[in-house]
Amino acid sequence: MNPHPTALSINLNKVALVRNTRHLGIPSVERAATLCLDAGAQGITVHPRPDARHIRADDVHALHALLARRPGVEFNIEGNPFHNLMDFVRALRPQQATFVPDSEGQFTSDHGWSFPADGPRLAPLIAECHALGVRVSLFMDPVPEAMAAVRECGADRIELYTETYARAFGTPAEAEVLQGFAQAARAAQAAGLGVNAGHDLNQQNLTAFLRALPGVLEVSIGHAFIADALELGYAAAVARYLACVQAAGH
Ligand SMILES: CC(=O)[C@@H](O)[C@H](O)COP(=O)(O)O
Ligand SMILES: NCC(=O)COP(=O)(O)O
């Protein structure tokens, strides 16, 4: 048994997306967080986009207050540090900030940072996060050659952008794509980086991913999880995803 099991962080963007279509406050993002954490999820992730299409600034503040009453739970705020992310980091000092190179209004995240090119502009923001006591993870494509430069600019972790794996899952390309992710994870770990992962992970593809990448510290899962929770309820959906993690032997 791995002594550092992979943490499950539930992304609540899509709860807010539904909530925002009426002025009734339901479904509640805070209630969703409470139910997921009560069911055993180890963290909550949000990605407050500049256009506030789903998670809004008020949600981030309310979740921060809620999670502050739950020691050991990780709050992970994602976003572009050159847009709105640093405002949240400075005000709330979450346990983790995940830097994502999205443009404003982007449909969804679809690529990681470019290294070595992005290193010099990211380094001062990473240093500022560290001064605030905030761990920094950089959203990255599975490029092994980039990992030494990522570490050099001060990042603590990477989050592997897993959409290409999710698309390849169940196709003849799966094994080769997974091998590429495993190589990138090993390069990151060898450089001294922790490895997180996320984007389009789901009940079907999660266990195989974690089996191929020992030592993944955290997965953040939103879209598929919320789809499952609509059928099963939050608690049962969390139980299913925790079982997927455990099935990987982590
Ligand atoms: C960084 C990442 O992969 C997720 O945060 C993803 O971008 C989810 O964002 P949306 O829920 O807006 O698609
Ligand atoms: N960091 C990825 C995340 O939080 C959730 O992505 P998705 O499961 O909504 O694709």
TrEMBL record:
<comment type="similarity">
    <text>Belongs to the PNP synthase family.</text>
</comment>
<keyword id="KW-0808">Transferase</keyword>
<protein>
    <recommendedName>
        <fullName>Pyridoxine 5'-phosphate synthase</fullName>
        <ecNumber>2.6.99.2</ecNumber>
    </recommendedName>
</protein>
<feature type="binding site">
    <location>
        <position position="108"/>
    </location>
    <ligand>
        <name>1-deoxy-D-xylulose 5-phosphate</name>
    </ligand>
</feature>
<feature type="binding site">
    <location>
        <begin position="222"/>
        <end position="223"/>
    </location>
    <ligand>
        <name>3-amino-2-oxopropyl phosphate</name>
    </ligand>
</feature>
<dbReference type="GO" id="GO:0033856">
    <property type="term" value="F:pyridoxine 5'-phosphate synthase activity"/>
</dbReference>
<keyword id="KW-0664">Pyridoxine biosynthesis</keyword>
<feature type="binding site">
    <location>
        <position position="54"/>
    </location>
    <ligand>
        <name>1-deoxy-D-xylulose 5-phosphate</name>
    </ligand>
</feature>
<dbReference type="GO" id="GO:0005829">
    <property type="term" value="C:cytosol"/>
</dbReference>
<feature type="binding site">
    <location>
        <position position="200"/>
    </location>
    <ligand>
        <name>3-amino-2-oxopropyl phosphate</name>
    </ligand>
</feature>
<comment type="pathway">
    <text>Cofactor biosynthesis; pyridoxine 5'-phosphate biosynthesis; pyridoxine 5'-phosphate from D-erythrose 4-phosphate: step 5/5.</text>
</comment>
<dbReference type="GO" id="GO:0008615">
    <property type="term" value="P:pyridoxine biosynthetic process"/>
</dbReference>
<dbReference type="InterPro" id="IPR004569">
    <property type="entry name" value="PyrdxlP_synth_PdxJ"/>
</dbReference>
<feature type="active site" description="Proton acceptor">
    <location>
        <position position="78"/>
    </location>
</feature>
<comment type="subunit">
    <text>Homooctamer; tetramer of dimers.</text>
</comment>
<feature type="active site" description="Proton acceptor">
    <location>
        <position position="47"/>
    </location>
</feature>
<feature type="active site" description="Proton donor">
    <location>
        <position position="199"/>
    </location>
</feature>
<feature type="binding site">
    <location>
        <position position="11"/>
    </location>
    <ligand>
        <name>3-amino-2-oxopropyl phosphate</name>
    </ligand>
</feature>
<feature type="binding site">
    <location>
        <position position="49"/>
    </location>
    <ligand>
        <name>1-deoxy-D-xylulose 5-phosphate</name>
    </ligand>
</feature>
<comment type="function">
    <text>Catalyzes the complicated ring closure reaction between the two acyclic compounds 1-deoxy-D-xylulose-5-phosphate (DXP) and 3-amino-2-oxopropyl phosphate (1-amino-acetone-3-phosphate or AAP) to form pyridoxine 5'-phosphate (PNP) and inorganic phosphate.</text>
</comment>
<feature type="site" description="Transition state stabilizer">
    <location>
        <position position="159"/>
    </location>
</feature>
<keyword id="KW-0963">Cytoplasm</keyword>
<dbReference type="InterPro" id="IPR036130">
    <property type="entry name" value="Pyridoxine-5'_phos_synth"/>
</dbReference>
<dbReference type="InterPro" id="IPR013785">
    <property type="entry name" value="Aldolase_TIM"/>
</dbReference>
<feature type="binding site">
    <location>
        <position position="22"/>
    </location>
    <ligand>
        <name>3-amino-2-oxopropyl phosphate</name>
    </ligand>
</feature>
<dbReference type="Pfam" id="PF03740">
    <property type="entry name" value="PdxJ"/>
</dbReference>
